[in-house]
């Protein structure tokens, strides 16, 4: 019987933060690659039936990932993640924003400050994700847009991808 993996999703309204702690049944190197290589991100980042499509990615400090979430009807929702700090196989931090296909930021939507940490735990890897927003209204907008459901579904896609490798 397959054991159940840790999934902890919490919202700290007083700090405008979402925290997700998630365990994956795979070694740290595989999980790190899945979060930092566009060919792998494209296979799991979007909740089904949506798909992620990378236009460009430079995973380095000062670099960014420009990608679209593509709906089953072809609708594209663009975003970019700008990388601010990277410690290989340990953590990375960056700012995620909605934008257009050229990467021009859409200021009507909140920006998310992501901090993602990776820890080997026996034969699995724990990923700690903290997403901070400038104000409570921004956090509430993201939650209303379905962040919890969408991100949970995407992390389940990652389970499937890691099982295949």
Q: Nutshell version of this structure?
A:
The protein has 165 residues and is an alpha+beta fold.
| Morphology call | globular
Q: Decide which structural class fits the backbone.
A: alpha+beta
Whole-number average pLDDT?
95
Helix proportion: 25-40%
Strands, total number: 8
Low-confidence stretches: none
The Cα radius of gyration reads 15 Å
Question: How many separate helices?
Answer: 4
Strand/helix succession: EEHHEEEEEEHH
| Sheet with most strands: strand arrangement | 1-2-8-7-6-5-4-3
**Percent of residues in beta strands:** 35-45%
- N-end to C-end Cα span: 20 Å
Largest sheet: 8 strands, antiparallel
């Amino acid at each position: 019987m397959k054991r159940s993996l840790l999934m902890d999703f919490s919202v700290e309204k007083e700090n405008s933060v979402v925290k997700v702690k998630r365990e994956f049944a795979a070694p740290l190197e595989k999980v790190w690659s899945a979060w930092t290589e566009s060919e792998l991100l494209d296979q799991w980042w979007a909740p089904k039936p949506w798909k992620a499509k990378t236009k460009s990615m430079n995973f380095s400090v000062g670099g960014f990932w420009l990608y679209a979430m593509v709906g089953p009807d072809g609708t594209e929702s663009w975003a970019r993640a700008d990388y601010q700090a990277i410690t290989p196989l340990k953590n990375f931090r960056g700012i995620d924003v909605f934008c257009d296909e050229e990467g021009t930021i859409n200021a009507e939507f909140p920006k998310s400050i992501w901090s993602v940490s990776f820890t080997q735990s026996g034969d699995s890897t724990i990923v700690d994700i903290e997403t901070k927003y400038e104000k409570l209204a921004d956090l509430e907008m993201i939650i209303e847009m379905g962040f919890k459901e969408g991100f949970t579904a995407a992390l389940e896609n990652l389970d499937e991808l890691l099982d295949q490798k």
